Amino acid sequence: MTNDALTLAVLVGSTRPARRGPMVAAWVADAARRHPRFAQVDVIDLADLRLPLLDEPVPAVFGDYRNPHTLRWAETVRSYDAFVVVTPVHNASYPASLKNAVDYLYAEWNGVVVGFVGYGAHGGTRAIDHLRTVFAEVKAVTVPQEVSLELLADVDFNDAEPADPTAPGRLAPRPQQQDALDALLDAVAVWARPRAAVG
Amino acid sequence: MTNDALTLAVLVGSTRPARRGPMVAAWVADAARRHPRFAQVDVIDLADLRLPLLDEPVPAVFGDYRNPHTLRWAETVRSYDAFVVVTPVHNASYPASLKNAVDYLYAEWNGVVVGFVGYGAHGGTRAIDHLRTVFAEVKAVTVPQEVSLELLADVDFNDAEPADPTAPGRLAPRPQQQDALDALLDAVAVWARPRAAVG
Predict the structure, then answer these.
(1) What residues of B are in contact with residue A92 (Cβ under 8 Å)?
(2) What confidence tens digit (pLDDT) does each residue in A84-141 have?
(3) Distance (Å, rounded) from C-alpha B186 to C-alpha A163?
(4) Full residue range of the structural domain in which residue A45 is found
(5) Chain A partners of B63 at a C-beta cutoff of 8 Å?
(6) Do A93 and B134 touch (CB under 8 A)?
(7) What is the ipTM of this complex?
């Protein structure tokens, strides 16, 4: 069973304009596509889903989804065995857009393996800490290995106005970050189970 | 200075349909209006504001707000000295709607005193824990006293179908919860400073 090919989604957690999430996700997806265990690797950008703030009348744990956007999102999550969640830190925690997307579903997260790639002045670590409790609640398994990209060390601002907060810069991870990402992907591959095995 | 009258907002943190937040906020506001230190007590329901997921291109810390809904929200928050935040627990943390509303602003939260009233199966305590780090990041001061309403002990479901998750029930707090609320409001009154003193 553990040799089965896995499907992996790299989730862009922030939907804010001028966010850095897409370039971080592209870096993660590139590495994942080189990994032998992942047969399919897709980037899912929450900005494309355009989920409104949670508008389901019944809590997700009851599985009684009413809205078309919820049903579409459920189908999407259900099609992956594992996730790498790319998250910035917003005010010492995760962005609302990411929590909103998690809260829409329940059963679809059960048994999923999740790894975190954080970014921010201090590597997004506080966002990751809060997300571990959130994903545990929806019965996903989070791997301890994580990647924490630091804005002043892993992003190149040379071609941007340094004082412009809307300039995302260009991702230039230090070599140890590539190692950390490979370790994260290895851990996800070790712990993830195909949906057929857990569902 | 500490004898100055204070303005207090009771913030309904969840915007989910069938939420219990408005009835909890009404209970908090009733008690606050009986408190001698609060000259003005208003309930602010985030559902009425209809804030979209954070769509400002510049992080709030830079104070460069671009959207009309952000400017309106900033003006609202700026007009209060203190907040009681009413929060459910969604997946072992706060609801996305509440974090979204916090993340829109920065300077307007600075120096504000915040108290928490949580509700949920276990009193919303995990939501409150995460919110303390969030509000500290926007330089608000959170008082240690808190109210944790437990759904099975402080809500009367007698006139509802118990198995229906969309039935909010009727708030019926145990006597000790009223005491806890009064202690929370006292603490907010002790620590809050009029905006003129901190702004």
Answers:
(1) 133-134, 136-137
(2) 999 999 999 999 999 999 999 999 999 999 999 999 999 999 999 999 999 999 999 9
(3) 43
(4) 6-198
(5) none
(6) yes
(7) 0.91
